[in-house]
Amino acid sequence: MRIFVKSLMLPILGILFVATPTNSAEETTKQYRVENIVRKHFDIIASTQTCTYEVVDNFINGDNSKLVELFEKQRLYEDEILLMTAKEQTAGIGSNSRTWQSPPGNVYATFTFPWPENQQGLLFFVPQVSNLSVCQTVTSFGLNPQFKWINDMLLNDKKSAGVLANCKGTFPYYSRSNDQPSSTNHVALVLGIGINVNMELAVAQERFESVTDVMKMPFTSMTIESGRVFDVEAVLTELNKNLCENFSVLLRDRDFASSFLPKISPMLAYVGQEVEYSEDKEEPRKVLFRGIQNDGQIILQEGDRETTKLSGRIRPIF
After folding, report:
1. Which H or E element spans position 84?
2. Under the phi-then-psi rule, with left for phi > 0, alpha for psi from -120 to 50, and beta for the rest, what region is 271?
3. Domains and CATH numbers, the chain
4. Which residues have a Cβ under 8 Å from the Cβ of 61 and sit 6 or more positions away?
5. pLDDT digits over 171-203, tens only?
6. Which pLDDT band, with edges at 50, 70 and 90, does 232 fall under?
7. For residues 7 and 19, what is the distance between their CA atoms, to the nearest angstrom?
8. What H or E segment, with its residue span, contains residue 59?
9. Cα of 102 vs its chain's centroid, Å
């Protein structure tokens, strides 16, 4: 079923996108493939996201020196996905601009997807589809993750992964068919994902104690919750597959309600529970979390009044 979105402003992690209708058949068949991922791995780096932003911003402004230096490429094709990973980060970026000392043994990855410019309205769903991809990845290793709206994955009610999405300007991708600039305009979707794979309990506790945010959550890892040690590369490989498959479906179907909500709902955390909700750094208030509606907004109940929200944060009441 083809869904056409009326023009409106949609906030995604603090950034506004314009959703515009399109009749382009090409965009409904766009396919992201794992084999088209171009990867650069570091043993240690300040932040994969910060470094990716530098590469992307420079390239958008006509400077490909960082792309050449790090990825050994003069140009990017419209089917290529940049991936920057690190074994360790000294200033990894988290939500609310927090920075972390990120020890080895976990997934630290920043992707850059070529996103059709005339499908920017679908970017509103990217955090949730990305979070679903993380949950599916962890499920494949025998764990039972919870989907915490909008962009966190939980294990046993503790945070084990997070997603940060950002969108850059029109990116000068090339077409493989004629080796010329693509006739389809794309923006650069930059997606930072961290998964606590083998993080130790002491590190998780220290991280929780260091956070001053009133909406903070306790941390955990796949190892803490299972007692097993995991192959980080195997986790990343599964994540790559799930992201490519899910983003391809999102662009093809343009139907969050049918293609993704049925997969999210069974693992959605806090449904029917009283939670704390905060928006735009306001003081958190207690509400009843009713779930996610078909357009991706959450449903909250305050007394007898039911409201929907595009953005914000929720957490359980401790």
Report:
1. strand 81-93
2. beta
3. 8-269 (3.30.930.10), 270-318 (2.30.30.100)
4. none
5. 899 999 899 999 889 999 999 999 999 999 998
6. very high
7. 5
8. helix 48-60
9. 18
